[in-house]
Write a structure and sequence with these properties.
Length: 210
């Protein structure tokens, strides 16, 4: 076809090649491996944001870990946050229950819809290889949209988090500081060093001024 176009489209046009079709076979995952990795990250981040919001609503967010220059952040609506987190946990446990039935993994530990139950469900679903087995089922693929939408919603509520990555250089020489929501620090993924947002900014400014 390209040759015919380059030749000025003279004569009868050739038959267009058949477009390859992606065919799904029963038993294969409905979600590819790369997307499974993305969903796993969404679930873990979702749990981290939920934990952060719960701490803020309870007034347990340590101000010393947040290098804001002045002012204080308004305390979130405790009732609203509580309702949202209960709804999140309920939906997540529903997915876990159905996944356990599909995998014949036995019932989950009984208990209230607590933060512990939420984190335990995320841990169980994201365990190595399990998510790929869960997302084989058409009625469980909804977990993809569930994780994506809840992660986005909780991130918006968390609101004022620093950037996920900073160009600050660690003492080990690497630029691999990532923001740890639970810790409230930038953590170097190479050596594990923790620095505050203020210290990370100071390092960037110092290096830029050289």
């Amino acid at each position: 076809m390209d040759e015919w176009v380059r030749a000025g489209e003279a004569g009868e046009s050739p038959v267009e090649p058949e477009v390859p079709a992606v065919r799904w076979r029963p038993g294969e995952p409905l979600v590819c491996g790369t997307c499974c990795g993305t969903v796993r990250a969404w679930l873990l981040e979702m749990d981290a944001f939920a934990a952060q919001l719960a701490r803020e609503a309870d007034g347990f967010r340590p101000p010393s870990k947040w290098s804001r220059v002045s002012g204080s952040r308004p305390k979130p609506d405790v009732a609203r946050i509580g309702e949202l987190l209960e709804k999140l946990t309920g939906g997540l446990l529903d997915f876990e229950d159905r996944a356990r039935v599909w995998l014949r993994a036995g019932s989950r530990p009984s208990g209230v819809r607590s933060a512990v139950a939420r984190s335990r469900a995320v841990g169980w679903l994201t365990e190595s290889g399990r998510l790929e087995s869960v997302l084989v089922r058409e009625d469980l693929v909804g977990l993809v949209d569930f994780a994506r939408s809840w992660r986005q919603a909780l991130e918006r509520l968390a609101g004022d988090e620093p950037p996920a990555w900073t160009p600050a250089r660690c003492r080990c020489g690497e630029r691999r500081f990532n923001w740890d929501v639970k810790a409230g620090f930038y953590v170097c993924s190479s050596c594990g060093t923790h620095v505050s947002e203020r210290e990370a900014s100071a390092r960037v400014e110092e290096e830029a001024g050289r």
